[in-house]
Structures
1.
Amino acid sequence: MRQIARGLGLLLFSMVAVATGVEAEEELSAALRQVVENNLAAYNSKDVAGTMRSIHTKSPDYPAMQLALPGQFSDLDIRTELANFQYIGHDDEFAVARVKLKTVGQPGKPFAGNVIDTIAVFYPEEGEWKYWSNLVLGVELVQ
């Protein structure tokens, strides 16, 4: 009888651990998606400082982004939206998601719309997840 009780206890413990792990993964996925959404909101508002807040200050892409954004905001009249977000996973340092962004220009302007498919890497800074880097998987032009 004790072995059955022990077995049931271990089963219950493992079920709770799995449920807690799933919850933690869902929370991390939601936090990463929020980083992307905050980044897009700032970008669409042409807010350089706001856009940069979502990028890790130690990211190898940080200096280039900081230089490029003002020109993009003054030269391009575009709007970017989240087309798809799929959390992939994490290790003890980084988290990864597949992110598709749809960018459209204004009618009569020289920018062709596109959907950029990326693998985005996130890394925490002072307890907050931020973009670290991304890898472009593909670009599809759209009208």
Note: Confidence is low (pLDDT under 50) at residues 11-19.
2.
Amino acid sequence: MNNKFVQAVGVASIAYVFFLSLSWALSALTRATFGFTYWMRYTLQPNSWLIAIALGVVWLLWAVSSRRER
């Protein structure tokens, strides 16, 4: 179609849908990031010393058991 007005409306609508979908995607990413931050601050951080001790014990047990096999 050679109508310049229809082409301009088409370009504007494509740009509008693109920016609207980009806004939705960034909003979803922001919500997910805030949820992860909340989980890190109130769940993982208070228990980080327990997790570190557990990982150290597991590593020690793995190192001792793999040494016996050699």
Note: Helices lie at 4-44, 48-69.
